[in-house]
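Allow me, if you will, to draw on your knowledge of protein folds for a short while. The matter concerns a single protein, recorded as an amino acid sequence and a row of backbone structure tokens. Could you please explain, in whatever detail you think fit, how the structure tokens follow from the sequence? I remain grateful for any guidance, and I place the record below:

…
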Amino acid sequence: MNARPDSVRSARDLFGIDSDLEVPIFTERGDYVPEIDSAYRFNPDVTLAILAGFMRNRRVMVQGLHGTGKSTHIEQVAARLNWPCVRVNLDGHISRLDLVGKDTIVIRDGRQVTEFQEGIVPWSLQRPVALIFDEYDAGRPDVMFVIQRILEREGNFTLLDQNRVIQPHSHFRLFATANTVGLGNLSGIYHGSQVLNHAQLDRWNIVAKLDYLPREEEMKIVLARVPGKDHERGRRLIDAMVSVADLTRKGFAVGDLSTLMSPRTVITWAENCEIFRDPATAFRLSFLNKCDDAEQPLVAEYYQRCFDEELDESYVHEGSESAGSSTS
């Protein structure tokens, strides 16, 4: 890896943002640089927040509902800066040893010896790497305290196992994504999310909120992912699909639904339309079957409003009682 960025580009040229920011970049792409996704659409405010993290070594957390592209947003910014990037998906099974390191047995000169193997945190700290903690609020709170010190700018990291203090590389960067900002599973849809310590959350310098894209932008992304629909009839179909998704999000916001359709699901629905050649069948297999039985009639109504046709009633449960009878 290059030790540091060796050039600058304007944010306007790289991301089409109305800003005069000059952003540091690497001229050469390394092994850890994400691939550029030309179809990705950048949110200007979130992009500026992420760029502040890269430029000024700020700790940036991106919060939002599932499917908004939080992790991808950070990766795609890094891709255009040619900045090495490592993404760690947190869960309840990630331990301190996974992050810090542990002693392992290796073969040296034909003999078994014990050797300390660095975890992802000390490995990243010593390199010009952007480390992303994905689903930060899914990590165990006691384990997350491992990174407490490095959340502070220029904060050193102590390896107790080796009595060694690691000073962060001048171009090490730290990011995180979260659904709940450490408040736990308040909405009921993010099981496994933890209530995190607010003294630690307070150490994140910037918290950016990423919402779903405007309708026109979401349509462009779906068409970019499924270019076979990029014709007049296909665009009308995608427009109706995004309309259904928007209704599910509004229904979720007012408490009518416990499940919403993310942009990721809309893309999956469009891809499945290419397979099954029927929007209704693809809709059932992509989203409707994920919904609670009692909520399926409302979701079917959303479909009818946008497509002006009824879903096959045999596939829509009218509540738990009819669901039980159909099963029997």
The chain has two domains: 7-209, 215-322. Residues 215-322 form one domain. Confidence is low (pLDDT under 50) at residues 318-328.
